[in-house]
Specification:
The chain has 823 residues and is of the alpha+beta class. 25% of the residues lie in helices and 25% in strands. Its EC number is 2.7.11.1.
């Protein structure tokens, strides 16, 4: 018997090596992706109804070629990439999506390396952008990426770099990339929503200015700056920094990816969804997958119908329609009673009336022909043209029925909003406590305008012939002609009286005469402060009437009509209806002739500017007091933005408009109060912009004011951010005297100190703050988030309050671009 160590025959080693080599090759093939099939220069594909002409990925998972679009003409084809092994042939990328091509069109990888889509006549329709020179071949990978590469296999262009509405596993989305939704489930042209990683690194979902693709209203934002969006093989989708750090998970996957196809798509309804579809191989045990695309997750998780509240655009559905969430968070567009879809095959286009509108020329004779249909839990949040507060539902109904311009009213918590068509951004949600009352014509009634016009003409002709023979008719004409001139001033006075009486009755405000205000202020002698559009005087009403007050005299206007009078009264009602401990209380007003005055409670400790920047009669607040002031101002802004019956954008948050109550420096229950809220609406547009356009470097004004961008609550967030940094550092946002050049602009200096991990430099002369550097750093980070140049990056004030209180972790803010406010 041979020893264990005895030498083996040579053929033993030969076969052993052969077996090892075969096993290694088999394992390599199992664990590696098949090499793509190169598409040589000169190759082409032709569109045709019966054509099976396309280029496949190595395993056949994906195909590149022409796909006939359902619902289009027999000659409607789209150059696309699709899942080829599933029955639905789902398209994941397309070229020239807004223009289908006809049968006989071709796509060719030319001899010079160009990818060219041409119509049957040979005219080029499309070619990819950004392709470098030296293309040697094309290839479609099993990832779904179609590439053009050079002889060294370096990719010169890839479909992953220019996605349409979908991204796939292994795909990386870089800054500046946009995913634009399809128009509908069967129409692949660009739709009304987009999902983009902006050049500033923020990830935002927008409505678009359809049919253009420009950004309209942001309805979701990541609020953190990243470098790329990654869809990894494990099915996780996340935003990462340049060094690969995961900043934000968009979707996390718990399903076995080896058994599933996956894709992330911004759908035609604006929802971003992560889908899965079972592969042909048996799925893992534990879950039975249907042979269709299943939604694994979606965002935004909030009701998509209620997120779109901008004044421009139609929202989640078209004009005159409303949006309602049905199963699996899929929104459904519906028409109200009395309306029908513009296009039954495309419900997103909106609805139109099925009845003649109310005729304004009928002098009230059509009022009885209309009813208001109640739409419970349904609101149209934009498009108001008149607002009433402290009013009954019956009165709200009457106001709309008697107004021929009114198409609907929204009624909620004793408030009434009149609306004109087209109605927009409507949605139904059980959480909506309001209702819409929609004006519709009664059944079996038709417009009487034409009949009334004919009848009026006949009556006028008959009366004319009868009266022409009498001098009474001539005298009557002179009398009627002279009445408007004689009664103009009396009518204006009556309008003012009626509006002011309604304002006083619907609020607890006191209406003062101008003579009373002259007496209370001693002839407007003691000035407390002044601005571009108003001056504030100290007044005394007497102890029984409220004691000391601050009287704000708004600039006079040369002429005022009835609309101006009513508008002022309406805005005063809105301001007077506010009630929050961090808002200065409006006591009363004067609306007499050209005089417009607002009477506020008197704040004896002056403004935050008086004490914070020194040189005043009040001591500088300590660190604890300053933190309480920050909380107070933030909570006051939350009330104005989110908790008022009518949203108020302050537009001029600065230390001069933050007043301190009597005990602010002594009492531990510290509060500060915001003043001048709502003032922007009481002034003309040009006055408002003058008021808020503070000159100088790094003022309190958000960049939107100087860029013709929409003015939203985010302008107040920006201003609050500057004020917060001023509270931390006890200095103005821009100061030259006593500071080095890099310290002059507070926002830039704060970011530099934070980036260098030296926030202590900002408060080095404040012993109390130096002992609380954790909170100092948190406040500085919040301030830097608030002053981001892009409004979408700034947090809402609700979130700011949570961050100030420590309830929400504050992430690392991106660098705010240095911005100089110029005229």
């Amino acid at each position: 018997m041979a020893s264990y160590y005895s030498p083996q025959p040579k053929f033993y080693y030969y076969y052993s090596s052969l077996i090892i080599l075969c096993l290694s090759t088999l394992l390599f093939r199992i664990n590696s992706q098949p090499a793509p099939r190169n598409i040589s220069l000169g190759s082409s594909l032709t569109a045709g109804a019966a054509s099976k002409d396309y280029w496949l990925s190595p395993s056949g998972e994906f195909a590149f070629g022409f796909q006939q679009v359902a619902g289009s003409s027999a000659n409607g084809f789209l150059l696309a990439i699709w899942y080829n092994k599933i029955a639905q042939k789902t398209i994941v990328w397309s070229a020239n999506r807004n223009e289908l091509v006809s049968s006989g069109s071709t796509v060719k990888l030319t001899k010079d390396g160009s990818l060219m889509l041409a119509d049957p006549s040979g005219r080029q329709i499309w070619g990819p952008n950004g392709v470098g020179a030296g293309v040697s071949y094309g290839a479609l990978f099993d990832t779904g990426n179609f590439v053009l590469a050079n002889r060294n296999a370096a990719v010169l262009w890839g479909s992953f770099d220019q996605p349409t509405d979908t991204i796939l596993p292994t795909q990386i989305v870089k800054r500046g990339t946009e995913l634009i939704s399809k128009y509908s489930s069967t129409n692949y042209s660009t739709g009304r929503f987009k999902f983009t990683l902006q050049n500033d690194g923020n990830l935002v979902a927008y409505t678009t200015f359809y049919p253009q693709t420009g950004s309209n209203f942001p309805y979701w934002a990541g609020n953190i700056a990243g470098n790329s969006v990654n869809f990894n093989k494990s099915g996780n989708v996340f935003l990462s920094s340049a060094n690969g750090t995961i900043l934000l998970y968009l979707f996390t996957n718990k399903e076995p990816t080896q058994d599933l196809h996956q894709r992330l798509t911004i759908d035609h309804d604006g929802v971003i969804r992560l889908y899965a579809y079972p592969k042909q191989s048996s799925p893992s045990a534990g879950r039975r997958w249907p042979a269709e695309w299943t939604t694994l997750s979606f965002m935004p998780e909030d009701n998509i119908c209620g997120l779109m509240r901008d004044n421009t655009g139609s929202g989640a559905c078209g004009f005159n329609s409303y949006c309602q969430i049905e199963d699996a968070q899929f929104p459904k567009c519906k028409c109200p009673q009395g309306y029908k879809f513009l296009d039954n095959s495309d419900e997103s286009r909106g609805c139109l009336k099925t009845f003649p509108p109310q005729d304004c020329s009928s002098a009230g004779k059509e009022e009885g022909l209309f009813d208001l249909v109640e739409m419970v839990n349904t609101i149209f949040p934009s498009g108001d043209y008149e607002y009433y507060e402290s009013i009954s539902e019956d009165m709200c109904r009457e106001l709309c029925l008697s107004d021929c311009l009114c198409d609907a009213v929204t009624y909620e918590r004793a408030s009434c909003w009149k609306k004109r068509a087209p109605l927009s951004n409507g949605y139904m949600d059980q959480e909506n406590t309001g209702k819409t009352l929609l004006k519709v014509r009664r059944q079996n009634s038709t417009s009487t305008a034409d009949k009334e016009n004919d009848r009026s003409k006949k009556l006028m002709m008959t009366a004319g012939w009868v009266l022409l023979g009498s001098s009474v008719f001539v005298n009557l004409l002179f009398l009627v002609a002279s009445c408007p001139w004689r009664n103009k001033n009396r009518m204006m006075s009556q309008v003012a009286d009626d509006s002011d009486e309604a304002t006083a009755l619907s609020t607890n405000l006191r209406r003062f005469t101008y003579r009373e205000m002259e007496s209370a202020t001693g002839g407007f002698k003691q000035v407390l402060g002044s601005g571009a559009s108003s001056t504030v005087y100290k007044g005394v009403l007497g102890e029984r009437s409220g004691g000391n007050v601050a009287v704000k005299v708004l600039d006079k206007l040369p002429e005022r009509d009835g609309h101006d009078v009513r508008e002022f009264a309406t805005e005063v009602k809105i301001i007077g209806g506010t009630n929050h401990k961090n808002l200065v209380k409006l006591v009363g007003y004067c609306n007499e002739g050209q005089h417009r005055l607002l009477v506020y409670e008197f704040m004896s400790n002056g403004s935050l500017a008086d004490s914070l920047f020194g040189g005043g009669a009040f001591p500088r607040p300590n660190w604890y007091t300053r933190t309480q002031i920050a909380y107070s101002v933030a909570r006051g802004l939350v009330y104005l933005h989110d908790e008022c019956s009518t949203q108020i954008i302050h537009c001029d948050i600065k230390p001069q408009n933050i007043l301190l109550d009597e005990n602010i420096l002594l009492d531990e229950s510290l509060t500060a109060k915001i003043s001048d809220f709502g003032l922007a609406k009481l002034l003309k547009v040009e006055q408002t912009r003058t008021m808020t356009a503070i000159r100088g470097t790094k003022g309190y004004v958000a960049p939107e004011w100087f860029r013709n961008m929409a003015i939203t609550t985010k302008v107040d967030v920006y201003s609050f951010g500057v004020v917060l940094l001023e509270l931390v550092c006890c200095r103005r946002g821009f100061e030259m005297e006593g500071y080095e050049e890099e310290e002059m602009v507070l926002v830039d200096w704060a970011h530099e100190c934070y980036g260098d991990r030296m926030v202590g430099r900002l408060v080095e002369k404040d012993e109390e703050a130096m002992k609380d550097l954790v909170k100092v750093e948190r406040f500085v980070k919040i301030g830097l988030w608030c002053v981001q140049e892009d409004p979408c990056l700034r947090p809402e004030m609700k979130k700011v309050v949570h961050m100030l209180e420590g309830a929400v972790e504050v992430s690392v803010p991106p660098s705010p671009a240095s911005y100089i406010n110029t005229v």
